[in-house]
Design goal:
- By secondary structure, this protein is α/β, with parallel strands linked by helices.
- It has a domain of 191 residues: Rossmann fold, CATH 3.40.50.
- Helix content is 28%, strand content 25%.
- The chain is built from nine helices and twelve strands.
- The strands form three sheets. Strands 8-9-10-5-11-12 form a six-stranded mixed sheet, sandwiched between helices. A four-stranded antiparallel sheet has the order 4-3-6-7, with helices on one face.
- It is globular and about 50 Å long.
- About 15% of the residues have low confidence.
Length: 278
């Protein structure tokens, strides 16, 4: 095992790695051949024009973010299909969370863009974009008040009232039946994360972004949250991108995995191939 990259297997020096992307039965080569022994110079390449992607599909084109002289994300181009679950892995400081925050404009890119259903996301109002591209953070940031008030927050921001029956149904789906009137100050860490997920789902997003959603939880709670997320994503046919430092979690949850280093996309491909490249 390459100790400098504990999250992946060692790649043979000089190896040519061409991961492929499968969308609607089509395979697209995502990287040009490279003899870079570490693969650090690889970046996914896509044509400037693409066919219209199905609902929920997401594409980044040369996405970059720079602060001062530091590049947090550098020239990342990927396509992710509807209903697909993709993990983002890499060492600390690789740009994983920075990349995720660009996808619903919590942060603005310095250059490049994101397409949602082939539409440039800069043409979508930020509030509407964040409804369609929901995000669950590493820590469940809940507002003071009841669980029900938190879940209804998104619709209220749009001048809508989420029916109580819908709140009850969402809580039942995330395993918190009977919690509607509970104060958020009385929730455990796992319960708070489930409420955060339900609050995001109340907006009926097409894309679900997960930033280390289980890293603050006890190990005993992790598998339950993973199974809950997988079940909901499959039921709703949502596109899902999960940042994780846990390679076992990536293998359990994601069909494909992106490996990032120093803000760059090293490679993207089937999870087992990326994590066990040899």
């Amino acid at each position: 095992m390459d100790v400098s990259r504990p999250w992946i297997g060692r790649r043979r020096a000089g190896a040519v790695f061409r991961p492929t992307l499968r969308i609607e039965g089509r395979c697209v080569t995502t990287t040009a051949p490279s003899k870079d022994p570490g693969g650090a110079g690889l970046s996914a390449q896509f044509p400037e024009r693409s066919e219209r992607l199905p609902p929920g599909a997401l594409e980044t084109r040369h996405l970059s973010r720079q602060i001062g002289g530091r590049r947090l994300v550098s020239d990342v181009s990927v396509q992710i299909g509807r209903g697909e679950i993709v993990a983002v892995v890499g060492p600390s400081g690789a740009g994983k969370s920075s990349f995720l925050r660009l996808l619903n404009r919590l942060d603005e890119p310095t250059s490049g863009t994101v397409l949602l259903q082939s539409i440039d996301y800069r043409t979508i109002a930020p509030q509407e974009l964040r409804r369609r591209v929901g995000m669950v953070m590493q820590t469940a940031y809940l507002f003071p008040g009841t669980v029900a008030a938190n879940i209804g927050f998104g619709p209220r921001q749009r001048g809508q009232v989420l029916p109580h029956d819908n709140i009850v149904a969402l809580l039942e789906r995330v395993g918190l039946a009977g919690f509607a009137d509970r104060d958020i100050g009385h929730l455990s860490g796992g319960e708070a994360q489930r409420v955060a997920l339900a609050r995001t789902l109340a907006n009926a997003p097409e894309v679900l972004l997960l930033d280390e959603p289980t890293s603050a939880l006890d190990e005993a709670l992790v598998r339950g949250i993973e199974e809950l997320i997988l079940g909901i994503v499959r039921e709703r046919q949502m596109t899902c991108i999960i940042v994780t430092h846990n390679r076992a979690q990536a293998e359990r949850m994601a069909g494909r995995t992106m490996l990032m280093e120093a803000g760059r996309l090293v490679t993207i491909g089937p999870t087992a191939e990326v994590l066990h490249a040899g």
